[in-house]
Amino acid sequence: SFSVLLRDDEDTFKILIATDIHLGYLEKDPVRGNDTFVTFNEILDHAQKNDVDFVLLGGDLFHDNKPSRKTVHSCLESLRKYCMGDRPVQFEILSDQAVNFHYSKFPWVNYQDENLNISIPVFSIHGNHDDPTGADALCALDILSCAGLLNHFGRSTSVEKIDISPILLRKGRTKIALYGLGAIPDERLYRMFVNKQVTMLRPKEDEDSWFNLFVIHQNRSKHGATNYIPEQFLDDFINLVVWGHEHECKIAPFQNEQQRFYISQPGSSVVTSLSPGEAVKKHIGLLHVKGKKMKMEKIALETVRAFHIEDIVLADHPDLFNPDNPNIAQAIQAFCMEKV
């Protein structure tokens, strides 16, 4: 239900939503090398200025599985600048954090660590670019998590069965069950859903009083018979799905008629491919949740480099392009340069 919330108060969660930041993309490019870092700073600056309760990221914070020293350093620099400070965090965690963060040596949320001074907690699942690899199954997010600057959640360690246990948050009278599932190869996850091997656990008490928020990083559009996750696979008790991985910005929540939940697809904050979806204006979201009601505010990103894409059919210009012309390559080049 999308009712306009009258005002922000002690019962209202304010959550900054972003995904697919791809830190380090084209970092060696002399012109575009710093684009991802500049936009990440803009995102965190919006979080600070809007006085959000926490930041929620939907995967692919890093572009490379083993990000460079420069990329990791820049990320740590930004998180330390914007997310540490004396501002008190206004919500509490009700779930068993040893379950939520069981793969960490520090299984608790960073703002409750007495050795750290966190003003804006950041929660993130991993994407397919920065997923856990190697014998120790570590990913770049684990470095940020170990440093106490980010809370990595939604990690599944079993290939037989996935039990998604939510992080239970409470602010005043509003309660959020935050579910996350880091990227898993689509065919495998599709098969696990079909075989009923994926379970989303519900809170034991007053399960209908929770706002259920689910973050996922998989193919949403169909790339093959099983190379995506159909929306109807997801449980119908969910209120809002934040769908990462897809780069086109469709951040305004859209209702799935069959399951009745809403889906927000924030899209990436940087262009990484020459596709029409990437040309859509990039946004992040400011999600307000009060009780079971929500409102998504779109925030346009101003530091994203302009990107335009257009198809040109040479056959539509027979007067300009004659196949028999030996200088046709130069003619096409001149035509394209004029377009640009």
From TrEMBL:
Cofactor: Mn(2+)
Protein name: Double-strand break repair protein MRE11
NCBIfam families: mre11
Pfam families membership: Metallophos, Mre11_DNA_bind
Subcellular location: Chromosome; Nucleus
Segments forming domain Mre11 DNA-binding: 294-340
Family in the record: Belongs to the MRE11/RAD32 family.
GO process annotations (BP): double-strand break repair via homologous recombination; double-strand break repair via nonhomologous end joining; meiotic DNA double-strand break formation; mitochondrial double-strand break repair via homologous recombination; mitotic G2 DNA damage checkpoint signaling; mitotic intra-S DNA damage checkpoint signaling; telomere maintenance
An example Gene Ontology CC term for this record: site of double-strand break
Residue ranges occupied by any Calcineurin-like phosphoesterase domain in the UniProt entry: 13-249
The keyword Hydrolase appears for this protein: yes
Superkingdom of this protein's organism: Eukaryota
Positions in coiled-coil regions: none
Keyword terms: Chromosome, DNA damage, DNA repair, Endonuclease, Exonuclease, Hydrolase, Manganese, Meiosis, Metal-binding, Nuclease, Nucleus
Originating gene: Mre11_0
InterPro entries: Calcineurin-like_PHP, Metallo-depent_PP-like, Mre11, Mre11_DNA-bd, Mre11_N
Gene Ontology molecular function terms on file: 3'-5'-DNA exonuclease activity; manganese ion binding; single-stranded DNA endodeoxyribonuclease activity
